[in-house]
Amino acid sequence: MVDYIERLEELKKLIWEHDYNYYVLDDPQISDYAYDLLMQELLEIENAHPELITADSPSQRVGGKAVDEFPSFTHRTPLLSLGNSYGEEDLREFDRRVKSDLGVDKVEYAVEYKIDGLSIALSYQNGILVTGATRGDGYVGEDVTNNIKTVKNIPLKLRLPAEIMEARGEVYLPRASFERLNKIREENGEPLLANPRNAAAGSIRQLDPKIAAERDLRAIIYNILYLEGAEMPSTQSECLNYLKEQGFTASAPLVSDDIDEIVEYCKSQGEKRHELDYDIDGMVIKVNSLAYQERLGFRAKNPRWAIAYKFPPEQVKTKLEDILVQVGRTGVVTPVAQLTPVSVAGSVVSRATLHNEDYIKQKDIKIGDTVIIEKAGEVIPAVVEVDKSKRNGCEREFVFPENCPECGTPLVRLEGEAAIRCPNNIHCPAQVREGIIHFVSRDGMNVDGLGPAVINQLYHAQLIKDAADLYYLTKEQLLSLERMGEKSADNLLKSLEKSKNCSLAALIFSLGIPLVGLTVAKTLAKTFGSIDKLSKTPYEELVAIDAIGAKIAQSVTDYFTAERNQEFLKRLKLAGIKMEEESQEIAKNEAFAGKTFVLTGTLSTMERKAAQEKIESLGGKAASSVSKKTDYVVVGENAGSKLNKALELGITVLSEEEFLNMLS
Ligand code: IVH
Asked: What is the pLDDT of residues 16-58, one digit of tens each?
């Protein structure tokens, strides 16, 4: 063999081994510098002889091209989800049920972390990673192979022989990497990511793998979905050992047949979870024997052999130093607790909501109190209780201000409402700013790089007085702001330009019409197809729509009749914002025209005949058996052999919900 071919093989093996030592065993054997030299040498040979590049080469972790959209991927084994339990009693009940279903009095379990990331499936053929896909609806996900390859502790090549192996796990972003990423985003004026889970999911769904590669993603693998050409282990804990031998970072389980020990273990892991460098939101308890798992089987979408124990929201005590009030977009004034900073659920909290004046009275909360605060997942932290035993007489009663802290207008409390409002609406700077923040938010016009801080700056510099002004900003104006560089200004202008084409539903939502959330906005967009038509629709017609009640209809009519709003919409239109959507019917017909559908199982929301007629009325064909010519198989309850045939032929499988989405 030619020297460089031999050397290339040697380099690949060395780098795989060093990756394994570093990322999986956490036991690096060489310096970063020595590793870089090996990588450089490999790249040089591959550059000179591109025909030698193989899919499992370490260079291929970032070699993927950007794509326009991800192809769909049908899972060979559906990726189901778990039933939740929240307390000790639920776990004991699970244990009793498993034993009684199996007719035995002793069952061994494997207890693992429930990783709060993004569920993925990996397929290897002859030891080489060929596909990485998201879970999707459990049956069909997205093929995100190029992004999965950037996850450094997912092997591109298995260590032991296996013809086909498919495994399931969770991709996550270590907490430290998440914080680093957000720091950079903050410096660049980009919107911050809410939590590591969203960051991981967003990274895996990046169309350009280079971005995913920058994110330092990791994966923990916990299930073997399919194995051919190697012996399948007989228990979950052996599966995890086998996964480790194959080169994965796998869950490390507690194996026990003692439910008391399992309950204790789950509780203690919950208390210690913040010592880990990634987020877990619970524990998963699985029957260890795979033979038992098979006997227990599934119920609807959940296995009978496993359950998730979700951690209760975390509570901590801290001092309530002061209570400030904050004016929201709709004028509601909310009391906010200013706390001595305290660490809870993985982040430092110094503010928490107190909801409204009544809440403070009911709970008898005083400034200076020691309070118990609670935080669960992404929820805003809240003060839930006062520890009255800690009172020393220095606590002060909170008096709700009589005037708006932003514009000084006397506050009002409407009959029957808990909320106190500033009635100054468009003249209250706080409400205007909050309205603009809402306008550009992710579910609204989704303007990247325009956070509250920049909006505040623009508003104070009097460069904007409402959201429409954003579209008339010049680069020079942006550059006049403090800490705004060339690049950020260009990016912001680009994001604004891009937002002009957002969907009609997003535009309607972004207007911030009282009572019009995303769902109502979608209904209005679908029904009317343009702002023009919607704005001219009288109350009677609006209220006749199924999902629109009298209050919403009134709010919508009020909004569009106000002259000021008409003026605002005119300026949006003049700036080039798309104010209508192409006809829904056309888009729908495109999805159905010429396509062959097969229905299997029972649909819960419509008769099969009605579904067939609907397909045909939209230009599709409803067939009775699955063949290569079938485009979609729609599965209802108790789907039979047609589903298997579809999976065999790689035909797109639609759940009832997805089918209804296509129709609507
Ligand atoms: S087992 C058929 N084990 O939690 C059961 N799931 O609904 C397969 N998850 O979306 C799931 N860590 O992505 C299992 N150690 C673990 C897990 C885990 C996280 C996720 C999984 C699923 C959700 C449960």
From this structure: 999 999 998 889 999 999 999 999 999 999 999 999 999 999 9
Asked if residue 114 has its Cβ within 6 Å of ligand 1, the reply is yes
Q: How far is the CA of 610 from the centre of ligand 1 (A)?
A: 36
Global pTM exceeds 0.70: no
Q: With contact defined as beta carbons under 8 Å apart, do 22 and 28 qualify?
A: yes
Q: Does residue 170 line the site of ligand 1, with CB under 6 A?
A: yes
- Compute, in angstroms, the gap from residue 197 CA to the centroid of ligand 1: 14
Q: Whose CA is nearest to atom 2 of ligand 1?
A: 80
Report residue 612 as tokens: 């067939």
Q: What pLDDT digit, counting tens, does each position of 519-572 carry?
A: 899 889 988 999 999 999 999 999 988 888 999 999 999 999 999 999 999 999
284 lines ligand 1 (CB under 6 A): yes
- Span 187-229, pLDDT tens digits: 776 667 778 888 899 899 888 888 888 889 999 999 999 999 9
Q: Provide, rounded to the nearest whole percent, the portion of the chain with pLDDT above 90.
A: 67
Residue 189 pLDDT: 66
In 3D space, the residue among 511, 513, 504, 562 whose CA is nearest the CA of residue 533 turns out to be 504
Q: Which atom of ligand 1 is nearest to the CA of 303?
A: 2
Q: Is the pLDDT of residue 186 over 80?
A: no
Strands (E), 181-279: 218-228, 254-256
Residues recognised as catalytic: 114
Burial letters 205-219, b for 16+ CB under 10 A, else e: ebeebeebbebbbbb
Query: Could you tell me the two tokens for 125?
Result: 């053929």
Alpha-carbon 570 to chain mean position: 35
Phi, psi of 61 (to 5 degrees): -60, -30
Q: How far is CA 467 from the centre of its chain?
A: 27
- Answer whether 80 contacts ligand 1 (Cβ < 6 A): yes
Domains and CATH numbers, the chain: 2-61 (1.10.287.610), 84-310 (3.30.470.30), 315-390 (2.40.50.140), 429-499 (1.10.150.20), 504-574 (1.10.150.20), 596-663 (3.40.50.10190)
